[in-house]
Amino acid sequence: MRKLLGMAAVIVVALGLAVPSGASVRQQSKGPLKVGTNLPAPGFWTGNTPSDISGGFEYDLAEAIAKKLGYDGVEVVNVSFDALVAGKAKGFDLAFSQVTITDDRAKVVAFSTPYFDSDQGVMVRAGTTVNDANAKKTQWGVQSATTAQSFLKDEIKPKKKPRVYQETSQAFAGLQAKQSDAVMLDTAIVLQQAAASKGKFQVVGQYLTGEKYGAVLPKGSPILADVDKAITELKADGTIGRLAEQNLGGDPAKIPVLGG
Questions:
Q1: What is the predicted pLDDT for the residue at 22?
Q2: Segment 88-110 mean pLDDT
Q3: Measured distance CA(58)–CA(247) in Å, rounded
Q4: Residue 128 — φ and ψ, nearest 5°?
Q5: What is the biggest distance separating any 2 CA atoms in the chain, rounded to whole angstroms?
Q6: CA distances to 13, 20, 24, 38 from 16, in Å
Q7: What is the spatial distance between Cα 201 and Cα 180, in angstroms, rounded to a whole number?
Q8: Which structural domains are found in the chain, ordered by start?
Q9: 39: nearest Cα among 27, 26, 48
Q10: How far is CA 227 from each of CA 72, 91, 96, 183, rounded to the nearest angstrom?
């Protein structure tokens, strides 16, 4: 019995060695690409929880990258924005959350090559005026840990302390409740929110800050170079531009420029 088993083993090994060198071997599945974001983020992510996301600019971009990198789709992970930009959020391969690339943030996280340009937009309740003459007197609302918060502090220097919210949805609710007169956030974000408000909100201006979004990855991520290559290719073939047109609510180039 032992001799027969031994002979069978030899045959199995021999058959394995006989596989032609050019034969394809099925690779083990990578599973889904785990993508972090801070929800809700209308236009960028369609849905309020990871389980009901059905589209959006950044979600569609993440799916396109996952396909290029050989992953089996995308798994969405909801994270705190503050923790994300502080390098403390965990549980994802990369994150898309409208994160502006800055030198300070790059000390604690790795950024991909930029995938989107965005300046700072001003959204108000319909009929409210914000301009260069009254910007300092305006009661502002802003999301915490954003470049908009820094811009208000360093450039606008309002006389009233801005109302600071952890989530964009809270900032928009505060504007509707008249806790603030204007919300400053990335132009693309407020344009989409205004479009979805059925006339309650409008974007009356923007400050040109030259900001660019990048995907956030952990320091030392082994997939950074592959992500950069995928984003570069998706820019070149027009995919990113097409996804932006499909999902975001207006053309930032048409919004009046303030602070000039």
A1: 40
A2: 97
A3: 9
A4: -85, 140
A5: 96
A6: 5, 9, 13, 49
A7: 13
A8: 33-115+214-249 (3.40.190.10), 119-211 (3.40.190.10)
A9: 48
A10: 15, 17, 12, 33
Beta bridge partners of 184: 122
CA dihedral over 58, 63, 68, 71, signed as positive or negative: positive
Pairing label, strands 110-111, 140-143: unpaired
Handedness of CA 121, 149, 98, 45 (dihedral sign): negative
The pLDDT value recorded for residue 72 is 96
Residues 6 or more apart whose CB falls under 8 angstroms from that of 162 comprise: 139, 140, 141, 142, 149, 152, 153, 180
Q: Are 203 and 186 spatial neighbours (Cβ–Cβ below 8 Å)?
A: no
Q: Which pLDDT score is estimated for 36? A: 98
pTM of the model: 0.79
Do residues 66 and 126 make contact, with C-beta atoms less than 8 angstroms apart? no
**Cβ-count burial 38-66 (b if 16+ within 10 Å, e if not):** bbbbbbbbbbeeeeebebbbbbbbbbbbb
Q: Which of 68-72, 91-95, 188-192, 246-250 has the lowest mean pLDDT?
A: 246-250
Burial of 68 (0-12, 13-18, 19+ CB in 10 A): middle
- Per-residue tokens: 175: 């504007």
